[in-house]
Design brief:
Keywords: Membrane, Transmembrane, Transmembrane helix. With 87 residues, the chain is mostly helical. It has one domain. 46% of the residues lie in helices and 0% in strands. It is built from three helices and no strands. The chain is elongated. The N and C termini lie far apart (88 Å).
Amino acid sequence: MKSTDSIDWNGEARRTWLRIEQGLAVEPPDGHTVVRQSDFEKSKVWRAVFIAAAIAVGVSLFQPQPADLTLTNVGGIERIAAGVQHA
């Protein structure tokens, strides 16, 4: 049976590299036992993007349908596209 130590020999190096790439401290600050992880979901940028997307979706859902594209005028649009004048 293999020991669990051989499963991930480069794990510590990979975690250190990832922390450096994320701009986080590699060593925990004094008085702490762990290094703080980046929490993108709580960032102001994420919230602003989410709110802007929600507003855009809400506006597009609640806009009235254009008057010339109603279901009763679909045949008229096809006649206009074909170049036929209204009688």
